[in-house]
Design a protein that fits this description.
single chain, alpha/beta, FAD/NAD(P)-binding domain, 2 domains, seven-stranded mixed sheet, five-stranded parallel sheet
């Protein structure tokens, strides 16, 4: 069997953007190949209940991604479990190398590698991910109605999430390791005026603790950054809001980026700075970061790729 595969459209990434691109590219008879990457299904595979995806009152994140994968396959998209380690954009067709040793050549490429939440790296944080520890307030805030919850961070993301979470929580404690926030002034003003939010200065997260059966958060231990004093804060939810990092390593040196590495696209399209390379989903989106917006961009990318290929013919 040849170690080189050619396709009209190569889709790199397998979250909502990648799978939706696979559906639309298949329906356009482009016979796409989708390479799943290091985390098949993307960030939704690390969540539990999803209640904000149209058509599903409630669905488990991993189950939703399996349904999307099956849909793309049913339309004719070939899905390969491989990791793209390099992409040569200087020649046509484009050439991608896989960790498996396979080479993929493509007339057009759709990048849908997503973004990753930044984590603190604590063992206890990892233990409760998806069971009380989250990095997405708009995804999971709804599950903490009437509960006390904690937000970790001091930038725009942290303040926006704390404010959003007051729609559900009885109390939100914002834990920040300094005595001033990095967030925009208007957000800081809203935070300080909100009676549901308490700000805890000069503290950092030391440990998340809770029950093992069922797995769930009961509180956190925080440490004062100067005195080292440890204190307990009861909480049912912990939101780590220290930012997101786009998974743009593959193309950060060749494509135009903005806002800390997100791929820049022409407004209203998924076109990047190189013709024939398209980007969709959280890889381009530092603002919304929702499954439904990612899926919409995946649709756009497939349609943009179809039009691009038609002009090349």
């Amino acid at each position: 069997m040849s170690d080189t595969r050619h396709t009209k459209v190569l889709i790199i990434g397998s979250g909502p953007a990648g799978y939706t691109a696979g559906v639309y590219a298949s329906r356009a008879m482009l016979e796409p190949i989708l390479v799943q990457g290091i985390e098949p299904g993307g960030q939704l595979t690390t969540t539990t209940e999803v209640e904000n995806y149209p058509g599903f009152t409630e669905v488990q994140g991993p189950d939703l991604m399996i349904k999307m994968q099956e849909h793309a396959q049913a339309m004719g998209c070939e899905i390969i479990g491989d990791i793209i380690t390099s992409l040569d954009t200087t020649q046509r067709p484009f050439v991608a190398k896989g960790d498996s040793g396979k080479t993929y050549t493509a007339d057009a490429v759709i990048l849908a590698t997503g973004a990753r939440a930044k984590w603190l790296g604590l063992e206890s944080e990892d233990k409760f991910k998806g069971f009380g520890v989250s990095a997405c307030a708009t995804c999971d805030g709804f599950f903490y109605r009437g509960q006390e919850i904690v937000v970790i961070g001091g930038g725009n993301t942290a303040v926006e999430e704390a404010l959003f979470l007051t729609n559900f929580a009885s109390k939100v404690t914002l834990v920040h390791r300094r005595d001033e926030l990095r967030a925009e002034k208007i957000l800081q003003d809203r935070l300080m005026k909100n009676e549901k939010i308490e700000t805890l200065w000069f503290h950092e997260l030391e440990e998340v603790y809770g029950s093992d059966s069922p797995l769930g958060v009961e509180g956190i231990k925080v440490k004062h950054t100067t005195t080292g004093e440890i204190r307990d804060i009861p909480a049912k939810g912990v939101f780590v809001a220290i930012g997101h990092a786009p998974a743009s390593e593959l193309v950060a040196d060749v494509l135009e980026t903005h806002n800390g590495g997100y791929i820049k696209v022409t407004p209203g399209t998924t076109e990047t700075s190189i013709p024939g390379i398209f980007a969709a989903g959280d890889l381009t989106d530092h603002k919304y970061r929702q499954a439904v917006t990612s899926a919409g961009m995946g649709c756009m990318a497939a349609l943009d790729a179809e039009r691009f290929l038609a002009t090349q013919e």
